[in-house]
Amino acid sequence: MRKDYNKLVRDKVPDLIEAAGKKFLTLRLSEDKYKRALKQKLLEETREVQGAESIAELTEELADVAEVMDTLIVVLGISWQEVREAQKQKRLERGGFEERLKLMWVEEKD
User: Fold this and answer.
1) Which InterPro entries match (predicted)?
2) Is residue 9 part of a domain?
3) From CA 76, how far away is CA 64, in angstroms rounded?
């Protein structure tokens, strides 16, 4: 029985599938499709973080998020320093998340 995935996978996954004696098909993505696939993979991995229940699971899922972010940053030609500077600026302007604030509602002026 065939199961369709249609998603970006880590580089060694085809080797693991082949070693298991299974048939598969992979495609090499164009640069634009690769960038889109990385962004989609980031969403997939963050959903998995949300579903993780133990510290061990969270650690594994956050490692996946970090791997995708590392790759995406390189592919987009951004440096981690630029990301950290943007993070620092946002923290200065809007704060962090240390206060555990959950915004429930805002009443707009008429």
Assistant:
1) MSMEG_1276-like_NTP-PPase_dom (IPR038735), PRib-ATP_PPHydrolase-like (IPR021130)
2) no
3) 18
